Automatic annotation (TrEMBL):
Gene3D superfamilies reported in the protein's UniProt record: Aldolase class I
Keyword Metal-binding among record annotations: yes
Keyword check for Signal: no
GO molecular function, one term: hydroxymethylglutaryl-CoA lyase activity
Keywords: Lyase, Metal-binding
Organism domain of life: Bacteria
CDD domains: DRE_TIM_HMGL
Residues in Pyruvate carboxyltransferase domain copies: 4-271
Family as reported in the entry's similarity comment: Belongs to the HMG-CoA lyase family.
One biological process term in Gene Ontology: ketone body biosynthetic process
Name of the molecule in the record: Hydroxymethylglutaryl-CoA lyase
Length: 304
């Protein structure tokens, strides 16, 4: 069975939507603790406009300040050429280009339609040609848009094709506001893997309607092995109304490990980092296993 690759997105998707700015030193300590838990990849920050995402305005300091561990790729979210240049100057392993599958979310989040994003990506791919950086692209609202509703599967397939023909190496299908259901997920995952069997596809779920883990399981059953997840279930897009947290990393790892699927992650170490989240962000998190304990937790019999 193929080992899973977990991309931890709490430092980016999680911290971007918090009410308070997390101090740079605390972000660096958080990412350093995460990178010691066996995660394959960490999305450390985003190189976006500081006006659009003020919480991540310290992107350079964060990437330059973290300890780089062999085997843990550092990826960052990038919306445009300016963001790409800033990211490359910091020596990241991967850039994760972001665009929407729907026009209205694209305009709300990035002030660009998908067509305009694709035009920008052409320039970005030219700028990365001499660099060894891996170029992934995340397609927001791939399972539904909070403004437009249904996003047809044919449109998603078409955008994936446009991305790959420009030279993007991997694609993340994002359920930005938790609209996906397991049947829909299975259909899209099957369709893209059948058409592009050699392309690494990652699935990015939000648990907004309680379907996050079910969707991840449905994707895995079709052969998907790469998942974005956020420690404690933090996360959400500030420009998507109603967005709430990502599928929770430790709950996802716990589910797969219980099923005998290797994740490469030391769950106890991950839970210890998760237990520190309330202090980092100043509130409780939706993570469940960190509160309930792993399924092998045992209680003493009640006294009669
Ligand atoms: N990094 C830093 N600053 C940037 C930037 C980048 N990647 N891209 C643009 N800017 C700055 C410009 O210098 C300009 O600054 P000024 O007002 O001081 O002159 C300002 O942002 C506006 O630039 P413009 O090119 O007109 O961009 P915009 O206002 O159309 O914004 C984006 C477009 C994509 C930069 C912005 O919408 C954005 O960063 N969105 C990110 C959304 C996001 O991350 N959402 C959550 C993840 S899904
Ligand atoms: Zn997200």
């Amino acid at each position: 069975m193929t080992r899973l690759q977990i991309n931890e997105v709490a430092p980016r998707d999680g911290l971007q939507i918090e009410a308070d700015f997390v101090p740079t030193e605390a972000k660096i300590a958080f990412i350093d603790a995460l990178s010691a838990t066996g995660l394959a990849r960490i999305e450390a920050t985003s190189f976006t406009s500081p006006k659009a995402i003020p919480n991540l305005r310290d992107a350079e300091e964060v990437v330059r300040g973290i300890r780089r561990r062999p085997g843990v790729d550092i990826t960052v979210l990038v919306p445009n050429l300016r963001g790409c240049e800033r990211a490359l100057a910091c020596g990241v392993d991967e850039i994760n280009l972001v665009m929407s599958a729907s026009d209205s979310h694209g305009l709300a989040n990035l002030r660009m339609t998908p067509k305009q994003s694709l035009e920008r990506f052409t320039e970005i791919l030219a700028a990365t040609q001499d660099d060894r950086v891996f170029v992934n692209a995340s397609l927001s609202t791939a399972f539904g848009c909070p403004f437009e509703g249904e996003v047809p599967e044919s449109r998603v397939i078409e955008l994936v094709e446009r991305l790959l023909e420009r030279g993007v190496q991997g694609v993340t299908l994002c359920d930005t506001t938790g609209m996906a259901n397991p049947g829909q997920v299975a259909r899209l995952c099957e369709a893209v893997q059948e058409r592009w069997p050699a392309t690494p596809f990652t699935l990015h779920f939000h648990n907004t309607r309680g379907m996050g883990l079910a969707n991840a399981l449905a994707a895995w059953q079709t052969g998907i092995t790469r998942f974005d997840a956020s420690l404690g279930g933090l996360g959400g897009c500030p420009y998507a109304p109603g967005a709430t947290g990502n599928v929770c990393t430790e709950d996802l790892v716990h589910m797969f490990e219980q099923m005998g699927v290797e994740t490469g992650v030391d769950l106890d170490a991950l839970l210890a980092v998760s237990a520190g989240l309330p202090e980092l962000v100043g509130h409780d998190t939706p993570g469940q296993v960190v509160k309930a304990g792993k399924a092998d937790r045992r209680y003493p019999m009640p006294k009669r």
